[in-house]
Specification:
With about 130 residues, the protein is mainly β. It contains no helices and eleven strands. The radius of gyration is 13 Å and the shape is globular.
C-alpha cells in the first residue's frame, strides 16, 4: 500500500520561506519519479517541481525557478520542497506525488503521476 503524507504548510508573509516534507511508504524515493504539484481554488493543478529516479536530476516550473528547490533524503524516504522568496501567487494546496520512471517529463502533467498525498495548504500574505 502506497502512502504519501505531506507536512510543513502554513501561513507566511511574502518574501518568507517554508519547507515542505513528504514521507513516502511502500517504495524508495530513489526508484520513482517524485514531484510537487499545487492547486489554487478555481485553477487547474499544476506541476511545481520534479526529481528524476536514480540520478536525482530536477526540473522546475517557470514560475518557481530560482526560488524553490526539490530534494530527497533516501535514508529517510522523504521528499522535500524548500520554498524561498514566496509570493502571494504561490498560495495553493501543495501535493506530493509519485509515478513510474516514465512519468518524469518537463511537461509535468498531473495525470502522469500514480499516487498522491492529501495536500498541505500554503498561504502567502502581502
Amino acid at each position: 500500500q502506497v502512502r504519501l503524507v505531506e507536512s510543513g504548510g502554513g501561513s507566511v508573509q511574502a518574501g518568507g520561506s517554508l519547507r515542505l516534507a513528504c514521507v513516502v511508504s511502500a517504495y524508495t524515493v530513489r526508484g520513482y519519479c517524485m514531484g510537487w504539484f499545487r492547486q489554487a481554488p478555481g485553477k487547474e493543478r499544476e506541476g511545481v517541481a520534479l526529481i528524476y529516479p536514480d540520478d536525482g536530476a530536477t526540473y522546475y516550473g517557470d514560475s518557481v525557478k530560482g526560488r524553490f528547490t526539490i530534494s530527497r533524503d533516501n535514508a529517510d524516504n522523504t521528499l522535500y520542497l524548500q520554498m524561498n522568496s514566496l509570493k502571494v501567487e504561490d498560495t495553493a494546496t501543495y501535493f506530493c506525488a509519485a509515478g513510474g520512471r516514465w512519468a518524469c517529463e518537463p511537461s509535468m502533467r498531473p495525470n502522469a503521476m500514480d499516487h498522491w498525498g492529501k495536500g498541505t495548504l500554503v498561504t502567502i500574505s502581502s
